[in-house]
Amino acid sequence: MTTVPTVHEGIPTEAHGNARTGSLRELVDRTLYMPFPFQRHPQESQAESAVETWLRTWGLTDDPAVSDMIERTRPAQLASYNSPTVDAEILQLVALQIAYQFVFDDAAEEVGRRHPGRLLPMLCESVAILRDDQPPTTGLGAALSDLHRQVRERCTPGQAARWAWKSREYVHGLLYESVAQTQSAPVGVGLSCSVRSLIAGVEPFYPLYEAAQPRELTPAELHDPAMRRLERLCADAAVWIPDLFSAVKEHRAGGLINLALAYQRAGRYPLPQAVTLAVRRINRTIAEIQRLYEEIGPRLTPAGIGYVEGMTGWIRGCYYWSRTVPRYADATEPLALSSKGA
Questions:
Q1: How many Å apart are CA 328 and CA 72, to the nearest integer?
Q2: What are phi and psi for residue 162, nearest 5 degrees?
Q3: Considering the entire predicted model, what is its pTM?
Q4: What angle do helix axes 271-296 and 302-324 make, rounded to 10 degrees?
């Protein structure tokens, strides 16, 4: 694993202009340990076009609110940043899956907050498609069914089965998020992290990085305890980074499942202090990832090394994407130092 000092050369900044002094983004840039340099895929624009066409084909952007969300989240850009060296087919699959999960996640969160009972049919349809190959009954289901088809065409049966299983775990996690959002008792740091791990939606991409390798990983590599630990740590670190940049937005919206806000609630800290505590946890996690990779690296095949690089790519990608994506524009506003948790 290549490591470099914590620098930010070459990072795109055009989305919001210059960050204001004292902004959340400035705080994260100053304190986050990011050993992975910025990269982007040369075919990002092609992936963006593919995403637009695919979403339109399945009617997912017929709703202007969804179309606006896609413009503000830039799924193809995230795919480009976290998967800069994969082949064009895998890049497109990653971009389509990111776009689908953005749409599905926002819909599930909205339904779960307002009408929790209506979330069950939505989630059960997804499970039926992923587990039993049942025909879809909604536009979201039709898009998922098509995505599942594309994964099976590109991946081995084993890889496709792992993709479906990890995707089902993500779907189940959204139900837990709904329960957490609607309960009256405060959600602590530990419980928040457990739910966040389930809804991160990062691990379903891992089988695609298996498929991106010239040869299959050996069973010993896939089931090595150090590899399993790496999978969990990489997903956590990757999803916790957007939590930092979305903390202002989520705080205003009353969000709960967010690492920084969990620390804020636990200690009634001002938001900058809560973000700093979250950054420290992420830094420790990235350091453990590097130590584990040094331990497991000598016994990995080239395919195993490529797989790990695919997982760590999400840490890099989520950081550089979060810095400039319009969805997190609030991160460039001056922080209110006295902002307390509820």
A1: 9
A2: -65, -40
A3: 0.91
A4: 170
